[in-house]
Amino acid sequence: MKYFFVLGSNPALSVAELASVFGLAEKEEMAVGAGYCGGKVFLLETDAKIDAAALIKNLGGTVKIGVIHDESGVSTRELLSIITPRLEPGEGKFNFGLSFYGSRKMYLKPLGMEIKKYLRERGTVCRWVVSRETTLSSVVVEQNKLTTGGAEIVLLQKGDKVLVGRTLSVQPFKELSFRDYGRPARDDRSGMLPPKLAQIMINLARAPKDGVILDPFCGSGTILTEAALLGYKNLIGADISDKAVEDTKKNMDWIKDRFQITDYDLRISNTDAIELSRNVKSRSVDAIITEPYLGPQRGPVDIETTKKELTELYSKALSEFKKILALNGRIVMIWPVFHAARNSQFITPDMKGFKIFNPIPKLLRANAAVELTARDTIIYGRPGQKVWREVVILEAS
């Protein structure tokens, strides 16, 4: 079956996550069948049936998952012949919506009206859910129950043809917001890693579920709480800050209570990242996933001084990570990118013993939307931010 994945605000991160989750670097036959539909949609063909409702809860970078039914011309008659046989209205009102992803303009009103006419002629009370945009947001899809009792029909531009599909699930935005803003311990002054980005980083690490995951700059515990929700069993957190350690404990207890998660082992300690090997066994950690201190978040910043201090800190930390990381383990780490005077300034810690891993399989790199830096990393941020995030994946060299 062929599935579509509507990508999040950072297509490169979204594709990297999907490639990691599906193992596309190793499964060349799947990578050959994968591709893009514009800059917002990723296509994947697989013999296995995807449980979209379960999968999307584990993906931080995917907004919608759906299935492709067929390929069609752009005429209303051709599209109707594919869409209407697959509509399955039950009792009560049936809501439906239309989304078009593509670079050309497509006037959806005639198609929507014909679908509405088709349903009403068969005695179905229906409502066409519309938006100002040509695509419905995940919020609109969820609030109008288009994946549970209704239907979001998705049209994807493919040259002069259209792929016709249907959305199966959308990102659980309410739950993600609750995990972000509802947790008992937050530290806005130090900066908060979004749960969605934490999910992506964990998926990029590709650690076994029974492997050991370590966050040596655990802060308020976002990576550890998300790892527990994703089913990882052996978690270690460390931070030099007493407050961070207490915040992590509070948030882990909250996650455990709210989501009834009990089958994991957690160790948290007040430990400096450059002294980890005193408390963590050699070669015992399968993945190190972390966002360290990124420098001052408010007020004027002396960028050169901050870069020098962080480069020294990260270099020492990486040296320590090498002692405790398993031979086939990965590091997924955030490095700061400073924006000033219309240019971006990066840091380059000493990576002795490590090399940067490009998370996009070779067959999927030829796309303008999948933008990586010159050193094969991905930048995550939004306009107006002084400090952006560089997502760096490291493996032993």
UniProtKB/TrEMBL annotation:
GO biological process: tRNA methylation
Example GO molecular function: tRNA (guanine) methyltransferase activity
Residues in Ribosomal RNA large subunit methyltransferase K/L-like methyltransferase domain copies: 189-335
Matches recorded under CDD domains: AdoMet_MTases
Source organism superkingdom: Bacteria
One Pfam family here: UPF0020
Protein's UniProt name: Ribosomal RNA large subunit methyltransferase K/L-like methyltransferase domain-containing protein
UniProt source species: Candidatus Falkowbacteria bacterium RIFOXYA2_FULL_47_19
